Amino acid sequence: MTQQQPTNDQQLSPWVIETRHLYKRFGQVVALEDINLKIKRGEFVAIMGASGSGKTTLMNILTCLDTVSDGQVLLDGVDAAGLDEEGRRAFRSDKIGLVFQQFHLIPFLTALENVMLAQHYHSVVDEVAARKVLDQVGLGHRFDHLPSQLSGGEQQRVCIARALVNEPPVIFADEPTGNLDEQNEQMVLGLLTELHKLGRTIVMVTHNPELGKFADRIVRLQHGKYQGEELNDHEVEHVS
Fold it and tell me: In terms of CATH, what superfamily is 15-231?
């Protein structure tokens, strides 16, 4: 088994992400308890909480890096709980773009090659598409540069290009500006905002309330439990 096909009901769902009574346990420790979360297609959601709140555990489950103990996780119409390890790997390649706090770039590969590596895992290598997404994030002049020749902000933009190249339905960003100075932080947040305006679904995990202001909606976790949510109804200025 590699990947389930969505049912008709799932195909009609407006939710690109839906969890139903999700639990995650590590031995006797309950890391996530009865999480019911819905994220619409094209929404920008920030999942927020202090260290130990369960937000990273939740993100790992939503990105198929980990599995649930109980409950359902429906991702783009597919029940991730029904996927085996190979199915989860294929699902990540097809459906999910990941932007990490640590850049995770291969040091001996150029910016272009790092982006094309994501295509390799997708079994289709397209240099034209890789160049296009690097242009999109403002790095058209840095194709042949190694990570060591790029600033922190440029490295994170390579990560965003890598996340975009396979055109996934959802971009997940885990503390995407944690290693950046203020100017590069604003640049990366501006990129995520522009991607959202173009219709991408963005899920950002952060403990920083300033980053949360960029989202349409903030979902709060505490001690592994849902603690409520709030809507942002104002525009956030950013440095372009």
Answer: P-loop containing nucleotide triphosphate hydrolases (3.40.50.300)
| Domain definitions of the chain by residue range | 15-231
CA distance 23 to 113: 38
Spatial separation of the C-alpha atoms in residues 190 and 137, rounded to whole Å? 10
User: To 5 degrees, how large is the angle CA 98–CA 86–CA 119?
Assistant: 45
This prediction has a pTM of 0.85
Write out the H or E segment, with its range, that includes residue 221: strand 217-222
Question: How many residues are given for the chain?
Answer: 240
pLDDT digit string (tens) for the chain, length 240 residues:
344 444 444 455 788 999 999 999 999 999 999 999 999 999 999 999 998 899 999 999 999 999 999 999 998 888 887 888 888 888 887 888 989 888 889 999 999 999 998 876 666 677 898 999 999 888 989 899 999 999 988 998 999 999 888 888 899 999 888 888 888 888 888 889 988 998 899 999 998 888 899 999 999 999 999 999 999 875 544 433
Give φ, ψ of 155 to 5 degrees.
Answer: -60, -40
